[in-house]
Amino acid sequence: MSDMSNSPIGKPLRRREDERFLTGAGQYTDDVVLNRQTYGVFLRSPYAHARIRSIDTTAARQAPGVVAVFTGADLAEAKVGGLPCGWLIHSKDGTPMKEPAHPVLAQGKVRHVGDQVALIVAETTLQAKDAAELIEVDYDELPAVVNIGSADGAASSVHDDVPGNVCYDWGHGNKDAVDAAFAVAAKVSSLEFVNNRLIPNAMEPRAANASYTRHDDSYTLYVSNQNPHVERLLMCAFVLGIPESKMRVIAPDVGGGFGSKIFLYAEETALVWASKRVGRPIKWTADRSESFLADAHGRDHATKVELAMDAQGNFLAMRVKTIANMGAYLSTFASSVPTILYATLLAGQYKTPAIYAEVKAVFTNTAPVDAYRGAGRPEATYVVERIVETAARDLGVDPTALRRQNFITTFPYPTPVGLTYDIGDYSAHLDKALALADVAGFPARRAASEAAGKKRGLGYSCYIEACGLAPSNIAGALGARAGLFEAGEVRVHPTGTVTVFTGSHSHGQGHETTFAQVVAGRLGIPVESVEIVHGDTGRIPFGMGTYGSRSLSVGGTAIVKAVDKVIAKGKKIAAHLLEAADTDIEFDNGEFRVAGTDRKIPFGAVALTAYVPHNYPLETLEPGLNENAFYDPTNFTYPSGTYVCEVEVDPETGRTRVERFTAVDDFGNIVNPMIVSGQVHGGIAQGLGQAMLEACVYDEASGQLLTGSYQDYAMPRADDLPNFTVDHTVTPCTHNPLGVKGCGEAGAIGSPPAFINALTDALGVRDIAMPATAERVWRAANGLS
Question: What one-character-per-residue DSSP string does 11-71 give?
Answer without folding.
Answer: --PPPTTHHHHHTT---BGGG---TT-EEEEEEE-SSSSEEEEEEE-HHHHTSTTEEEEEE
